[in-house]
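Let's practice the habit of predicting before peeking. Look at the sequence and jot down your guess about where helices and strands might fall. Then scroll down.
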Amino acid sequence: MNGSLVDVLVVDDEPSFLDALRSGLEREGFRVHTAADGVEALDKVAELEPDLVLLDVMLPRMSGIDVCRRIRQVSQVPIIMVTAKGEEIDAVVGLEVGADDYVAKPYRLRELVARIRAVLRRAPVAAGVMVDDDEVMTVGEVALYPQRHEVTVGGEALHLPLKEFELLELLLENSGRVVTRERLIDEVWGHDYVGDTKTLDVHVKRLRAKIEPDPSLPVRITTVRGVGYRYERGG
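Done guessing? Here is the structure:
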């Protein structure tokens, strides 16, 4: 982020769409950079270090899914995937490889800006909150360090994308208590989140795959049907 402006990298291969979106986002106060294919997107991420990437799934040279996967190997920059209307499978796969959110075309600029601001608000750089580096949350074998954005399981370091980290942090803070789906969505995605609540379930599934001894029989993050999720104190 340079100064007070937020740098957004928009990756799409439709020139007319890019031009219109650039104008709309610039009117909202964002500094917009563009890339027309997956390979160029990776180069721009390395060169510009943007504050957020708006990434279309269907791209020349390299798919948006593969681009997202490659970015996540080197960066935690917030990523919003853009899918074609009704392509729910693309959205789910995007979340599974590390995207923070997704939006389906066609969408209104107001909706997109709300998504962008919600994701940025939850990002560590945007939050600007400092906590004691020694602060740690520990339940059983799982330890979370808020300042360092680190998680260990049984002493082994674990890589978590931003949304999974924030979900785990909120669940650990309330270990032994049920956290409703509404609260999880409000606090992790923001009060103005307008997406599908299936996003939450996808992130919980990904988180379980990384911290549960047996993800098919979760003993740490349990489901309270019709209400939400609970992190078990004995986990």
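How did you do? The chain is about 40% helix and 20% strand.
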